[in-house]
């Protein structure tokens, strides 16, 4: 199906083609390439508005995921009944926030952007990290898909949730 990447911010330059390639590979690894996916890149102000509206946290963040299929258990693939249900949902990337964090931590912006997109995709597939057990399950899934991505692309990406519980 389709992958739509929208860049709704002008603060940080964004090269969509490499991001698209890596997200498409992640979709294949997760076996969800038949589902529509939206990836929306926003600035700090807009990610903060979304974070405040949906999570009651009035601060910018790196990623927010809005699954189309809301009651998936971790690792379950959606079972659509109709064509218009072949949708994973939307991942909002706070690219300004991500860029600022990369500057502070000396990390590669495009690598972290890919890892953050992978994290958001896992959330769309039911993975959470509200408890230590959930964190461990999500960490292992992120590690697995990033290792596969690394094998294909030659990158050396590590899970976002590492040491985050």
Describe what this molecule looks like in 3D.
With 165 residues, the protein is α/β, with parallel strands linked by helices. The protein has five helices and four strands, in the order βαβαββααα. The protein has helices at residues 16-29, 44-55, 95-105, 109-124, 132-153, and strands at 3-7, 36-42, 63-67, 87-94. β1, α1 (16-29) and β2 (36-42) form a beta-alpha-beta unit. The longest helix is centred in the C-terminal third of the chain and has 22 residues, at 132-153. It is globular. The N and C termini lie far apart (34 Å). The model has no long low-confidence stretch (mean pLDDT 95).
Structural class based on helices, strands and sheet pairing:
alpha/beta
> Using only CA atoms, what is the Rg?
15 Å
Summed over residues and divided by their number, the pLDDT gives a mean of 95
- The strand order across the widest sheet is 1-2-4-3
Low-confidence stretches: none
